[in-house]
Amino acid sequence: MVFAAAAVERAMKIQEVIMRALSGAITWLQAADILGLEPRSVRRWRARYDAGGRVALYDRRCLRPSRRKAPALWRRLCGVGSWGSWGGQRPSMGD
Fold first, then answer.
1. Does the structure show a pLDDT above 90 at 36?
2. Domain count for the chain
3. Both 82 and 37 in a single domain?
4. How far, in Å, CA of 37 to CA of 16, rounded?
5. DSSP of 35-52, one letter per residue?
6. Which phi and psi angles does 82 have, rounded to 5°?
7. DSSP class of residue 70?
8. Is 12 found in the same domain as 58?
9. Cβ pair 46, 38 in contact under 8 A
10. What is the pLDDT of residues 42-84, one digit of tens each?
11. Domain span at residue 59?
12. Contact between residue 14 and residue 35 where contact means Cβ atoms under 8 Å apart
């Protein structure tokens, strides 16, 4: 898997803060403040890290294409990027 540099940097920051909190150097509330997240989100990141290691900290949104993205043929023919450009409906093929 290839991740963007920003995603790798963010995952490294999250891992560093989680490791500091696990070692007891900082509290979990301090970890949440450092990351700019709610304590519940930090608990979720910790559970994800415990379950999958460092790879689990990468942004998962980059791994799958958008559901709103129009098929490549329509993007090329019509110059649109998503179905939203058509009012939420797929254009007809001239039924």
1. yes
2. 2
3. no
4. 15
5. HT--HHHHHHHHHHHHHH
6. -150, 165
7. P
8. yes
9. no
10. 998 889 888 888 777 776 665 666 666 666 666 666 665 555 5
11. 5-63
12. yes
